[in-house]
Amino acid sequence: MADYKKDDQLIATHLGDEYEKYLGSIIPPIFMNSLHVFDNIEQYNDKSLRPKDGFFYGRVSNPTAHIVERKVAAMEHAEHGLTFASGMAAATTALMAVCKAGSHIICVKNAYGVLTGYIENYCVPELNMSVTYVTGDKVEDFEKAIQPNTDYIILESPVSLVFTLQDIRAIAALAKKHNIKTYIDNSYCTPIFQKPLDMGIDIVMHTASKYLGGHSDIIGGVLTMNDEELFKKCSMLREQLGGIIGPMEAWLMMRGIRTLDVRIREHEKTAMKVATWLENNDKIAKVYYPGLKSHPQYELMKSQQGGNTGLMSFEFKTEDRDKICKFVNALKIFKIGVSWGGFESLVCTPMYPGSPEHAKEAGCGWGIVRIHCGLEGADNLIADIQQAMDVAGI
Ligand SMILES: *Cc1c(COP(=O)(O)O)cnc(C)c1O
To answer: Which residues have any ligand 1 atom within 6 Å of their CB?
Structure first.
């Protein structure tokens, strides 16, 4: 039989089930409590007398959150997991654990915008940090950007706009040589399709609003890591900054994770059909999806990912903004919204709030359309795209 601690499907479905402890419940309960009481005052006074993995206050730890932490950590092949109130709470805590005033950061150019916003609007002006952005598809870009005070490399592979990848193994090795800590946002691949810690990365982050939750009903985040010192620092900061996940959200994340494997495989199957259809359509100029053989980093993808999920971008041959907006408005199944990773299909035009120059800088056309392929069925999604193109006259 497969190892409970190593097999992703067993971890996702059953790790943390303790029937004898929870009255035979098939599902561990939600611990909706802010504190735990002690047997005697000696335990209260002396940490070493408390049970191992003991709980005492809900801002520090929670049993439901702890089950999820064990699940995600096991799937990521990590020693430690920490859940947070959001992906951003996780990302900012990790950055604070590694960096100090004056640190230099190397960051992938199209990394999650709220994180780069935090660096630019707080870390740089208030903490005298500096940041160098790199496209990220060449390892040399990182090497050239290293400075004596470089402490942190921020990766997101693939990036969730233009779907370029970073060579995770090579960048992790380079960083180790220079004593730089590495962080990756693994929300797109999920631990099922990509295990960055095995490739040498120090910290892996997930936002639970995407595939881990999978039902568009929670905000949450997770960090996983092996380094003991880093874990202690992140735990301390979580306690002090107060960013732990709520018990209800933790429980919903646990529920989402039970079906993670089947969901992402269905997202992948659907997205491959949609991407292939788009690529073969003569109205489409370009499809950004790492699952396509035409993706410039397809071989790298094969070497570090076990698959791809439901998110992609594409550009029409027409650059007529009115037509593209008309197309988006005419979609029926794809709803207009920012997120992804849930059961539902979504669409947005990420570059239209900015300028054409802004899009060029990001490495795409102004009219780029991003879609998340949900679980409504590939044929339905393709029919929806076709009818919206007809309405828009594309
Ligand atoms: C949504 C998202 C985040 C932010 O997570 P929150 O839980 O919303 O804070 C970070 N990274 C990526 C790639 C995302 O899509």
So the answer is: 86-88, 112, 156, 160, 185, 187, 207, 209-210, 219, 221
Amino acid at 337: G
Q: Does the fold of domain 261-392 match that of domain 8-258?
A: no
- Specify the pTM: 0.96
Q: What is the pLDDT of residues 241-269, one digit of tens each?
A: 999 999 999 999 999 999 999 999 999 99
The fold for domain 261-392 equals Aspartate Aminotransferase, domain 1 (3.90.1150)
Nearest to 43 by CA among 56, 31, 33, 34: 56
Closest alpha carbon to 294 in 281, 317, 275, 315: 275
Which atom of ligand 1 is closest in space to residue 111's alpha carbon? 13
Query: How far does the chain reach from its first CA to its final CA, in angstroms?
Result: 54
Domain extents in the chain: 8-258, 261-392
Strands (DSSP E) along 51-185, which ranges?
A: 80-84, 104-108, 130-134, 150-156, 181-185
Which ligand 1 atom sits nearest the alpha carbon of residue 188? 13
Ligand 1 centroid to Cα of residue 112, in Å, is 7
Question: Which of 72, 84, 88 has most ligand 1 atoms within 8 Å of CB, for mutation?
Answer: 88
Distance CA 323, CA 329 (A): 10
Residue closest to 337 by CA, chosen among 374, 309, 384, 308: 374
Q: How far apart are CA 368 and CA 393, in angstroms?
A: 17
For tokens 């568009």, the residue is 216
Per-residue pLDDT of 263-290, as tens digits, reads 999 999 999 999 999 999 999 999 999 9
- Out of 187, 203, 218, give the residue to mutate to test ligand 1, the one with the largest number of ligand atoms within 8 Å of its CB: 187
Q: Under the phi-then-psi rule, with left for phi > 0, alpha for psi from -120 to 50, and beta for the rest, what region is 357? A: alpha
* Ligand 1 centroid – CA 188 distance (Å): 10
Query: Which pLDDT band holds residue 376 (cuts at 50, 70, 90)?
Result: very high
Written out in words, the top-level CATH class of the domain with range 8-258 is: alpha beta
